[in-house]
Amino acid sequence: MRALLASTLMLFAALPARADFTSCVAGLRSHALGQGISASVFDHAMSGVQPDMKIIEAMGAQPEFKTPIWDYLATLVDDEKVAQGRALLRQHASTLARIEQAYGVDRHAVVAVWGVESDFGQVPGRWYLPQALSTAACFGTRRREFFRGELVSTLKIIQRGDLSQDKLKGSWAGAFGHTQFIPSTYLRLAVDFDGDGRRDLVDSIPDALASTANYLKKSGWIPGARWGYEVAIPSGYSGPSGRTGKQAVGFWSGKGITKIDGSALTSLPAAGLLLPAGRNGPAFLVTKNFDAAYAYNAAESYALAISVLSDRLRGGPGVQGDWPTDDRGLSRAERKQLQERLTARGYDVGKPDGAIGALTRAAIKDVEAKLGMPQTGRAGGKVFDALR
Predict the structure, then answer these.
(1) Half-sphere exposure of 56 (CA within 13 A, CB side)
(2) Which residue(s) pair with 274 in the sheet?
(3) Residues 148, 150, 156, 162: what is their CA dihedral angle, to the nearest 10 degrees?
């Protein structure tokens, strides 16, 4: 009886939302037609579309802004991803060489974007773009005009015949394809690099990678320059910091800053001092090439993941300094092992895949409570070690 009552209440609660959505879609239709979208394209693309409130939940849970940076990097820049990226660098070497020649952007940075954005095309996103964007435009708590514009851009892609609408599946924010372009960025910067007459970021790896290089070039990438490197700052350092406060290398040398191994700073374009976890964590000098990666997603943690992964793809060691935590982040392989250990103890966490969702977080909290640990629900080194 209670289950029936609950389902009935949910049904009635959904009715106003659906009515509001119908009214909102009518407004979106008028706007789209005013932007040159044909009625038939709009109606076909939006046929059967209903709002998905999980999209609104996702808007407030972006990992770049919610996840501790040591967790964020541990997942995105792990040995598994590095091995995959190096294999793809070899597989697509000739295409990447042509891309470097055409755009002046380092191939390791392009492949790093590919790896971080979609795990090299393995996780392209699951939402149908017109559904995601119309939901965000109608029910989002912010940037509704932005999402309305992205919906129109999506319809322009369909109307122009670049991609059929069944190919347009991506993130809750409307990003799609191997390197996750939002529709308006696709219209501005996507390129046809395989010469088939279409800009296909879904099924054409050459188009996707070249479009990414074009994006980075337009965002200020300096050909032949590094994104930066890790540095050591003196104990008690109280000088300037921040990505945008760029100075010549000599300025930073004068502040007592060295490379992470203690050697003198080497040549870089003007660089800012990035302290992503404060003055007690790893430090980096970052150039305009770091800023170009930042432009892709407007988050310093994201740009650092791209930058560090690009270094590891070319054989570099990754971050050397210690993060200010006693509870380290876990790689994807370790997250899978954590889920397997939870499953072995009777918890339902779904298929162990390294993706930490609500079921895994609830199981971790229960384990933490039983072990007398603070209940965080976080997949970190402490609970991983405790479950050995």
Answers:
(1) 14
(2) 284
(3) -160
Mean pLDDT (10-residue bins), the chain, 388 residues: 43 50 94 96 95 84 70 94 98 98 98 97 92 93 91 96 91 94 97 95 97 98 97 93 96 97 96 96 98 94 97 96 94 94 94 90 94 92 92
Q: Which of 140, 137, 139 is nearest to 149 (CA)?
A: 137
Residue 236: the pLDDT is: 87
Gap between the Cα atoms of 330 and 344, Å rounded: 19
Whole-prediction pTM: 0.90
The end-to-end CA distance of the chain, in Å, is 43
Q: How many CA atoms lie within 13 A of 255 on its CB side?
A: 22
Q: What six digits make up the tokens of 95?
A: 């295409």
Bridge partners (DSSP) of residue 176 are 170, 181
Assigned token pair, 370:
């039983």
Of the candidates 51, 111, 124, which has an alpha carbon nearest to the alpha carbon of residue 85? 111
Cα distances from 206 to residues 199, 254, 350, in angstroms, run 10, 44, 35
- Phi-psi category of residue 36: left, alpha or beta, with phi > 0 → left and psi -120 to 50 → alpha: left
Number of Cα atoms under 13 Å in the Cβ half of residue 23: 7
Q: Where are the beta strands (DSSP E) in the chain?
A: 127-128, 169-170, 228-232, 242-247, 258-259, 271-274, 283-286
Q: Hey, how many other C-beta atoms are within 10 angstroms of the C-beta on 14?
A: 14
- What gap in Å lies between CA 121 and CA 131, rounded to an integer? 21
Q: How far apart are CA 172 and CA 133, in angstroms?
A: 7
**In 3-state terms, what secondary structure has residue 246?**
strand
> DSSP labels for 115-133?
HHHHTTTT----EEHHHHH
pLDDT score for 7: 44
DSSP-derived letter for residue 266 is P
Instruction: Check residue 64 and give its pLDDT.
Output: 47
CA atoms within 13 A on the CB side of 16: 5
Give the DSSP letter string of 147-180: HHHHHHHHHHHHHHTSS-GGG-EE-TTS-BTTTT
d(CA 309, CA 302): 11
Structure tokens belonging to residue 77 = 């820049």
